[in-house]
Amino acid sequence: MAKSAKKIAIERGGPERQALVRVRIEPSPDGPIIYCNAVEIGHNQHEFSLFFARLPAKASREQMDAAEKTAVLELSPEAHILLPPTVIKPLIDALQSQLDTYNKERQTIDAKEASKS
Asked: Is the pTM of this model over 0.85?
């Protein structure tokens, strides 16, 4: 998992202390796993919103009827993640690093091709 240095403040019945620590997130077998192959991103002055959804292998008749009329397939989000602006740049850097590693080990994902899906 990706690691990042964070400055945290600790206060427990005494004077506040600060420490620079590394954050490491350990996956848990009991944690939720959500498969999503579509994402929409938005923001306001306080946070970034990531809405994750799953494109169906086969759309329902209702979804197809609506999509034919509007050229839009409406999906309900599987997950909605809110992130503070302070984590966006490190997130982009971590994603780029993982993509670079993936491309070296397997195959190249062209940015133009990835944006089409």
From this structure: no
Tokens 């982009």 belong to which residue? 92
Asked if residues 86 and 48 have their Cβ atoms less than 8 Å apart, the reply is no
Say how many C-beta atoms besides its own lie within 10 A of residue 27's C-beta.
8
Answer for the pair 95, 103: CB distance below 8 angstroms, yes or no: no
For the chain, percent of residues with pLDDT exceeding 70: 79
Distances (CA, A) of 91 to 7, 28, 78: 17, 21, 20
pLDDT, tens digit (0-9, with 9 covering 90-100), for 47-66: 999 999 999 888 889 888 99
Provide the token pair at 84. Answer: 């503070």
Each residue's pLDDT tens digit, 62-91: 888 998 999 988 889 999 999 999 999 999
Side-chain-side CA neighbours of 65 within 13 Å: the count stands at 3
Q: Apex CA 94: angle with CA 56 and CA 81, to 5°?
A: 45
Closest CA to 80 of 116, 56, 33, 48: 48
